[in-house]
Amino acid sequence: MSARALSLALALLLAPVAACADDGAEPDAAQVSASFEEAYAQTDLGKEDSGGCSGVVVPDRSGFGKRVALTFDDGPNAVTTPRVLDVLAEHGVKATFFINGSRVTGPAERAVLARIVAEGHILANHSQSHLDLKNASAAKLASEVGKTDAVLRDAGVTPRFFRFPFGSASCSGMSYVKGLGYTVVGWHIDSADWCFATTGGASCPARTFRYVPDAYRSDLLGYVMSQLRAKDGGVILFHDIHASTAAALDGILSALEDAGYAFVQVDDAVYLPRLNGATPPPARFVGAACEADHDCNFSSAVSSGICHRFTPTDGTPAEEIGFCSLPCEGTCPDRVGASPTFCTTLDGGATGRCVAKSAAVNESCEAIEGTAPAVVARFIGTSSAAAATATACVPR
Ligand SMILES: [Zn+2]
Questions:
Q1: C-alpha 249: how far from its chain's center?
Q2: CATH number assigned to the domain comprising residue 35
Q3: 314: CA distance to ligand 1 center in Å?
Q4: Which of 125, 252, 253, 369 has its CA 20 to 30 A from that of 228?
Q5: Alpha carbon of 102 to ligand 1 centroid (Å)
Q6: Is 328 among the domain residues?
Q7: Does residue 73 sit in helix, strand or coil?
Q8: Distance 151 CA to ligand 1 centre (A)
Q9: What is the span of the domain harbouring residue 355?
Q10: What is the pLDDT of residues 194-207, one digit of tens each?
Q11: Same domain (yes/no): 44, 170
């Protein structure tokens, strides 16, 4: 028997224990760690258009504009899930709960499901007993999906979203689940709360999950925030079966709010268009026309694209128009194929905003509605950039 077959056999042997555990204890820490490390590698390598057969990769890879979709897996738990729901309610945040049907063992769990639905969260399918389904037989897969599908329908919802346990899927399994009408949801960010939970929330040991940097080994909040900064938002994975997650959630949501993040659900077709079968907006950059921030689906190292709205003041009929911009100090990023950019101020010196320089590609600003070329000074802010001027496309 190969090592792979042996570990699979062990996983299957141990899986029923997982199904029965109602205190959040992990039955086989080594297998859980290996599965999550494999999942981490997939999310990190995932390309924008390579949803393919991975149960981890979300087809949308950018353009989140500081939007976060919270997801909670492996519940319901009659003790910890209500604590999570309490915190979400205090913050007015809606999330998605991927449940395991085997956890619904009595009236207490059914009451938790009813509360999830009543409070506006999405109830979704995470299989019956949390097996690694990558190598499951067709019959086993059908039973694992179907039993929890029935649990969800009993709770009064039409299931729409499915997440493979550990994000572990095969191509045939993926097409089977999609054939049932499900949208398969992976994640961009693993909070590693399952790893912190192994020490009651104190730390995530390197031997359990090696992808948490040493600086964040004892800092779940810091790790979550660092991941979100790197990816500008996205779908994030938590587990509502851990008391340590429920205890940390209020601090995490407060930090997200303070940092300017907003919350969406996994069915949001504006910020997760590909996941929801919608066509993403064309890629835009500084100087492109826009109506709202989410039209400006690009970011710099420190901030997301924003739509600068203005009303021309030179006698043109007053109409609300706008172009894409970025907050800046000193410098702005350039992009091949787009006009060169310049950091100036559009509000009398209070803040910096990236604008397009007058260039052939924007027909000397004529292609950017409401603007005209003007010589403007660089906004330096706290940067070390030198004073400079440029001819840029600014509101007339
Ligand atoms: Zn899970």
A1: 16
A2: 3.20.20.370
A3: 59
A4: 125
A5: 12
A6: yes
A7: strand
A8: 17
A9: 293-395
A10: 999 999 999 999 99
A11: yes
How many Cα atoms within 13 Å fall on the side-chain side of residue 146?
7
How many angstroms is it from 270 CA to the middle of ligand 1?
26
Structure tokens at 276: 């929801």
Number of domains in the chain: 2
Ligand 1: centre distance to CA 177 (Å): 17
User: Last residue of some domain: 210, 244, 264?
Assistant: 264
Write down the pLDDT at residue 107.
Answer: 97
Length of the chain measured in residues: 396
Cα–Cα distances (Å) from 70 to 83, 190, 226, in that order, read 15, 11, 16
Does residue 223 sit in the same domain as residue 74?
A: yes
Between the CA of 201 and the centroid of ligand 1 the distance, in Å, is 18
Model confidence, pTM = 0.75
Residue 373 Cα to ligand 1 middle (Å): 55
Q: Rounded to the nearest whole angstrom, what is the distance from the C-alpha of residue 74 to the centroid of ligand 1?
A: 5
Q: What is the pLDDT of residues 5-63, one digit of tens each?
A: 444 444 444 443 343 433 333 457 888 888 888 888 887 765 444 457 889 989 888 87
pLDDT tens, position by position, 65-86: 889 999 999 999 999 999 999 9
Query: 42-48 long-range CB contacts below 8 Å, 24 or more apart?
Result: 42/167, 42/186, 43/167, 43/186, 43/187, 43/188, 43/189, 43/190
CA of 16 to the centre of ligand 1 (A): 14
**Rounded distance from Cα 165 to ligand 1 centre (Å):** 5
- Distance, CA 231 to ligand 1 centroid (Å)? 22
- The string of pLDDT tens digits covering residues 220-244 is 999 999 999 988 899 999 999 999 9
Residue 336's pLDDT band (boundaries 50, 70, 90)? confident
φ, ψ of residue 174 in degrees (nearest 5): -60, -45
Supply the pLDDT for residue 6: 42
CA of 200 to the centre of ligand 1 (A): 18
Amino acid at 355: V
137 and 70 share a domain?
Answer: yes
Distance 232 CA to ligand 1 centre (A): 24
- Residue 111: pLDDT band by 50, 70, 90 thresholds? very high
Which of 94-98, 131-135, 315-319 holds the top average pLDDT?
Answer: 94-98
Report the separation in Å between the CA atom of 215 and the middle of ligand 1, taken as the mean of its atom positions: 26
- Ligand 1 centroid–CA 166 distance in Å is 6
User: In angstroms, what is the span from residue 126 Cα to ligand 1's centroid?
Assistant: 7
